[in-house]
Amino acid sequence: MFKHITQAIKSGRSPYLFTAVEGERMGQIAVLDGEDVYGEKAIVQKVSEDLMLPTVRNNVLIERIITPPHLVLCGAGHVSVCTARIAKAVGFRVTVIDERTDFANRERFPEADEILNLPFAEALRQIHDPNSYFVIVTRGHKDDNLCLKTILNKMYTYCGMIGSHSKIKVVFEDLRSQGYPEERLRSVHSPIGLPIGANTPEEIAVCIVAEMIQVKNSESRGSEWDEALCDAIETIHEPYAMVALIDKKGSAPRSAGARMIVKQDRTIISSIGGGFGEYEASQRAAEMLSRGPKVKRYTCMMNNRDAADKGMVCGGAIDILIQITEE
Please, are residues 16 and 43 in contact by the beta-carbon 8 Å criterion? Predict the structure, then answer.
């Protein structure tokens, strides 16, 4: 089931994952991918589009697994170089678009996952990820306008365009004259970035990435499985422990849906928040791998004093489910 999810993510789909977290069925899972159900169909529940996920309902954790955030940089200038570096450090997949090979290349963008040396419109037609974050920082007004027109006809999570108020006004008036709806235009973050008085390319990059993080974390839309977690699911060929954060109370670093893998050699892949809570979960997972059981749920309670003593950032409680895979 986990492999099916990773394959769906890589194909641009966002399947639903159902995990029984209480009772006799605890640990059973099912995947709803489009109209198809895989696994334990008995635990699948009706999911409405407006349901805030992840959530626990009728003893089942319901998650929509979304693709990791995907930054698409339209333009390969100095601001893009800095933005790519910071965005990659905070977990974004990075694509750089610019047909100028002396700007968009591996030497300038070593952290980029993909570099497309193509005209903007042609390259943007290759982007189909609905969890894309488009940042328009081209070398001129004409290319900015072209990129924005193309992006407004796509699905995206974030779209921002750099530029002065006068330039932005001209671009938007042109789009209105062509019939682009006002609601769609209002979704564009322009001027781009949080207003922190940024001046240098590095400072501008910070304000852009900060705004993308603000959008990403503004509402619960689903559970993000990062690249490391997906790669591990597809490449580990031995039993491993899947550790899932079901719920949290009080103050804790990560929210429901956070996951990590613990291998038989105690290697940890991804994170459920770090600190003592993660350490305890990894120790329990390692013990289950060697002695059983196959599934276990527990709550890690941390008051503020314990948190400080044991290395957790803050107090609170995290509810954890550990599942041992068969493969």
Answer: no
